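Risk register update: the risk that structure generation would not scale has been downgraded. Supporting records follow, first protein first.
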Amino acid sequence: MEDTNSEISTVEEGTTLLLVDDDGPFVRRLGRAMESRGFTVDIAETVADGLAKASTTPPDYAVIDMRLGDGNGLDVIEAIRKAREDTRMIVLTGYGNIATAVNAVKLGAIDYLAKPADADEIFAALTRKPGERVEMPENPMSADRVRWEHIQRVYEMCDRNVSETARRLNMHRRTLQRILAKRAPR
């Protein structure tokens, strides 16, 4: 989580940011990096804590991990959106896939970043102006990644029901569970 730019962009003083991630060391480093950019940072390491903070003091901005120890970060996005319409939220996850990115955007997130993402990438995503284009990635997805994305899309369409997803993909349920438990291929 190093800053690559010698000159750091900042936000208006008093701008609040909620970070929801169960990786304690990562979220604290990110919190310090965002404080140096002018944010007033609040940290939650569980869905329950994120939901509580979202309902009591909805933030101006939020960075939310998709998979947390006690549930799904999409629940926090939904709660923030209900409490405050104008919060700019991004989803940050090590299990990136198109289907969950679409769900996150439908619920109100403005962007979706795969881990590892550094503070500069996260800040840029949070502060990007509406309609501003994102740079194209240097490396396209591998065939393994495309397959994994398809499985994740069907899994999301089946409301995360493993048995139904396995039936639709004509795959053994245990094989599907092993695939779902792994990180996305590069």
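Supporting record for the second protein:
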Amino acid sequence: MEPEKPTTFFGLDWRIALGFAVSFVWITGGFLYLASIVGLSQFIHLPTADIGSFLEGAFAPLAFLWLVIGHFMQQKEIVANTRAIFLQEQSARRQEMHAQRDSFFKLQTLVQDQLGSIAAFHYMSLQALIGTEDEDTDALTAEQTLGASSDSAWFIRKMIALAVSNRQDQAKMHEIFFGTELRERHSDNYIKTFRKLLRAAEAVDTDNMVSEALLHGSPAGILYRIILMVQGEQLIDSLMSLSNEPGSGRSMAG
């Protein structure tokens, strides 16, 4: 909304215009008083001290009037400067927020690549468990290269698919994510890395839209929630909306 424009007369602020009008009326009245009552010739021949005292008394009200007008004009300028400073501060805050968000989205790309790499190493460590130890090594290497170059969520989605296919077997789920020291380390690293990403998102997003999208709308967030549920010994049916079993809607652990 545009600021309210001040009332003007002949291009002057109404206070200045009022001051000029009052001054003109006051001086004109004083001149007429001298001309009709005192007489200009008699006034001119008065002693200098008397003339000074008369002018001092005559112009004192005008001096006070312009002092008051100056005070209000100064107050108006202070209000305008305060508003300008406030707008500049808001603009600086918006620019800072945009800069922080730009930095976050650049960081998000790097962190998602890191999460994809963790998921890739985790998936590679599962080949013997899921019965694909004879799978072509070159094919797995090609998939890992794909995940690292163009699709950082490739192995994250493969881990999600693996979890969904074994969702009814709690022991197998625990074996997938925490069965060995290496898998447990991969799962812990994934949780810690994703939590750092969430904290960074919350710091630049007051409405939590970005953090909610990361947690509930991205493959990285879904895998994070799956790991937390497995860590808390809960089935993932409620997470993937694949079952309406009683108790499947319990909150995530951690």
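Residues 240-254 have pLDDT under 50 and may be disordered. On this basis the risk owner (M.S.) recommends closing the item.
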